[in-house]
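Check out one such.
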Amino acid sequence: MTTKSIPLFPLHTVLFPSGSLPLRIFEPRYLDMISSCMKTEGNFGICLIKEGSETGKAALTHDTGTLCEINYFNTDSNGVLCITAFGKQRFTIKSKQTQRNQLIIAEVTLLPNDPQHPIEDRYLPAVDLLRKLLEQLGYPYAKLDKKYDDAGWVGSRLVELLPIRLEQKQHFLQLEDPSQRLDELWQLMKEQDLR
């Protein structure tokens, strides 16, 4: 398994591989991080916050996150940097160090991406729901490469978009089996009447 050193962006959200996340960057440490990533074509990691906040002192994060690349950037009328992070691959944190500016640098092990897995007929209503959700959303979701026949892609997009607790989203991110992820998500959607 590949290991690499990356800066972390702790957030109150969960992003999966092949997902897009628009972000507004204004804190100096993250402006520097994005600038460095763009100069070196480097990546950064998005991790769900376990304790703490997105600003100020470095937050405590969950150990599984998603390696991201920047596939769009612009500055808005207020001078705030707007980027779109695109999820590439899941990782687990082996160790981390907080710099003086509170930016976390982590040594991570990259995890294999989900294998392609066909959708079972019983999950076709989940595919229909995802289609409807994505049709209602603008950029960057409209630009996603749609894979409605892949259980891993469908499950991941639904976890990102549905109004379920962040801890549940994190649980789904940590699951290795895309079929298990979609099955557990479908059960949760039934329980919470999200279908």
